[in-house]
Amino acid sequence: MLEVKKLNRQFVTEDNKVHAVNNITMSVPDGMFAAIVGKSGSGKSTLLSLIGALDKPDSGDIMVDGEDVTKMSVGKLTKYRRQKIGFVFQGYNLIPNLTAIENVMLPMELNHVPKKERVERATALLEEVGLKADRHVRVPGRLSGGEQQRVSIARALANKPRLILADEPTGNLDSQTGKVIFELLHSLSRKENTTIIVVTHDLGIAGKTDKIFQIIDGKLSEKGVS
Ligand SMILES: Nc1ncnc2c1ncn2[C@@H]1O[C@H](COP(=O)(O)OP(=O)(O)OP(=O)(O)O)[C@@H](O)[C@H]1O
Ligand SMILES: [Mg+2]
């Protein structure tokens, strides 16, 4: 269960003050596939960064598995990011000089998983996300966008996270490939009972999730699925 309580994050610059996350309270049960929609600049990425502990809130709590992320020590936060969270980004963010399988193995290496197990799990994950076997040893530059996103989803799953945070994972893909990637995330959330939160602009896609949150100017509300 993810529970966000009265979360706030402001950005103050010389001539401007933006309340990017404005007193947001939300809860997402285990295994749920949820979407966050909202206009550009509404605060979606800021909220995901806070949940993923890539950024610190000004106030509020983020409870994951009964632990408050906002109160964790630096050492604990590193472990939290590595073991409990999987990130998927619009630009894939794969390491360019590592092959697909090496990219998926890397988070397991940081987590001290033995080599043999890393190879086996990475191979199984790449198969699960539907990457053809001959692509496993290619570097990202020699893969299509859809293939790269499959690799980054496999990488996100590497350490069996409780929560996957995906920021516009289909934003760089054509609509057909985007649909396939989205369905892949959906089936994984069911199969692995992983909670997934996806930021998307595509309301058609968002309509297929279990729950939709909408952000307007940093304020979040739950949107009825129509
Ligand atoms: N590091 C920062 N410094 C100053 N302002 C920031 C910073 N990060 C975000 N903001 C501001 O906070 C607001 C929310 O930004 P955020 O990136 O969360 O929006 P978003 O909903 O993800 O938009 P998009 O759909 O374009 O990705 C925006 O007004 C943005 O300019
Ligand atoms: Mg964003």
List keywords for this structure.
226 residues, Rossmann fold, 4-stranded antiparallel beta sheet, 35% helix, globular, binds adenosine-5'-triphosphate
Task: Write up what this structure looks like.
By secondary structure, this protein is α/β, with parallel strands linked by helices. The chain has one domain: Rossmann fold. Helix content is 35%, strand content 29%. It has helices at residues 44-51, 74-84, 100-110, 115-128, 145-157, 175-191, 203-206, and strands spanning 2-13, 16-28, 33-38, 59-64, 67-68, 85-89, 163-167, 195-199, 211-216, 219-223.
What's a quick, concise take on this entry?
35% of the residues lie in helices and 29% in strands.
Q: If classified by CATH, what would the architecture be?
A: 3-Layer(aba) Sandwich
- Rough shape? globular
The distinct bound ligands, ions and cofactors come out as: adenosine-5'-triphosphate, magnesium ion
Q: What is the radius of gyration computed over CA atoms, rounded to a whole number of angstroms? A: 17 Å
